[in-house]
Specification:
The chain is of the alpha+beta class. The protein has one helix spanning 2-52, and strands spanning 55-64, 71-76, 81-85, 97-100, 106-112, 118-125. It has a six-stranded antiparallel beta sheet with strand order 3-2-1-4-5-6, with no helix packed on it. Keywords: Membrane, Transmembrane, Transmembrane helix. The chain crosses the membrane at residues 20-41.
Amino acid sequence: MVLKKNIMERNNKKKRRKILNIILGGGSILAMLGAIIYVQITINKDADRFYKNSISSIITDKGTDWLTGRANVFYLSDGLKIFLAFNKVSQLSVGDSIYKESDTYIYDVYKKNHKGQYEHSGTYDYRKVHSD
């Protein structure tokens, strides 16, 4: 009788462990999916804001994109952001002037020359800043 009871208790413990592992594994998967969805929504919102707004702004700060960790983020004086792949970091720097018309991803960059005047440095596409 005692042996049967011990066997049943061990089987119950094994079942509880399996259930707990399934719950923890499922919770981890849901948390990862939630994080991925959040990142995509945030990136898409930034891209939409960039597309819709006209910009005549100065780059005020530079950091690393905390969402993906795969890009530099340049903060504009009007609150918008430009994400730039690490291999393209030379395209922008703090103090550069950015100009963009509304409803386009194309923007112009102006850098200061040795006289302190802005000169056109290049035209870029926001959608291609993460690519090689």
